[in-house]
Design a protein that fits this description.
The protein is of the alpha/beta class. The protein has helices spanning 15-30, 49-54, 63-72, 81-86, 104-113; strands spanning 3-8, 34-39, 56-57, 61-62, 76-80, 99-102, 116-119. A hairpin with a 3-residue loop joins strand 3 (56-57) and strand 4.
Length: 120
């Protein structure tokens, strides 16, 4: 199967768009594709467990349900280190979710390493 990278920059201020990105990633994983998510800008705030629990998209479901399914299915998570630092998010703030703090160079490399990139 193919490799999909989902790049998300919208956070809790746009719950439907945020949940949609995770729903699409989950759907790809369910179909057997390898999935990576790169969260940048306000999207890094979605990795805080309290925010993850609160975000519910209109017609796009629960962020918590999507994130848990992605983690259980082996999706890879990256968070912009610069965006995280600007929003006081550390690896300790994301609970048990394995998240790699990454640079813009990592995002560029991921885009070249994956077959498709969706941006939300």
């Amino acid at each position: 199967m193919s490799k999909l990278l989902v790049h998300l920059t919208f956070g809790p201020e746009a719950p439907t768009r945020a949940a949609l990105a995770f729903l699409v990633a989950r759907s790809a994983l369910d179909d057997g594709h390898e999935v990576s998510l790169f969260l940048a800008g306000d999207a890094v705030q979605l990795l805080r467990p309290s925010t993850t629990d609160a975000v519910q998209g209109v017609g796009t479901g629960s962020l918590r349900e999507h994130l848990d399914a992605l983690a259980a299915g082996g999706a890879t998570f990256y968070a912009s280190g610069m965006s995280s630092k600007a929003r006081a998010l550390s690896p300790d703030d994301v609970g048990a979710l394995p998240v790699e703090m990454a640079t813009p160079n990592t995002l560029v490399q991921l885009a070249f390493d994956h077959d498709r990139v969706f941006t939300y």
